Amino acid sequence: GLLRSASLQVGRFQGFGLDADNLGINLKRSGAAWQIGLDSQMVAGAVTVPDQQGVPIVLDLQRVSLPEPATTNAEAIAKPDPLADVDPASMPPLDVKIAQVLLGGNALGASSFKLRPVAGGVLFSDLNLNLKGLQVTGSAGWDGRKGATSSWYKGRMQGTDLGKVLQAWNFEPS
Fold first, then answer.
1. In whole angstroms, what is the distance from residue 14 CA to residue 123 CA?
2. Which strand ranges, in their side-by-side order, compose the sheet holding 148-158?
3. pLDDT above 80: residue 15
């Protein structure tokens, strides 16, 4: 018979923009798709990969923990750009929902969006990002070729209390 499910524990995983230690992976067939359960310090949740090409991959994640960002210009310049070698036009269609995004251990909030390939790049639609009380909605695009890309955003940014949003991002509230 065919493989219907598998459970793996990976000491160190690098790939698909993910660099995770002690990653638990559960694979299971579900209709015309693979369900992939992920569990590590960096990411926890489920990914559904359909058999049919062109059908969106669904990421339904409870948590994504991103590393601490650079705090100085020198640090930022020294860090390699993790997207530098990515060709936007090569991205598959994705439906993404993340219950909790963490940045350097600090909670940002929930995020969701749809990513669709378009001529020369990708379109992010139905953006709904909660960034420490700053709600970002709308659409965005990432166009060009690997190493020569540009991006755009069209939408709305709002918060119920600008002073609290500024303090959450370490700015003075006035």
1. 26
2. 5-15, 18-30, 33-39, 43-50, 57-66, 94-103, 106-118, 121-131, 134-145, 148-158
3. no
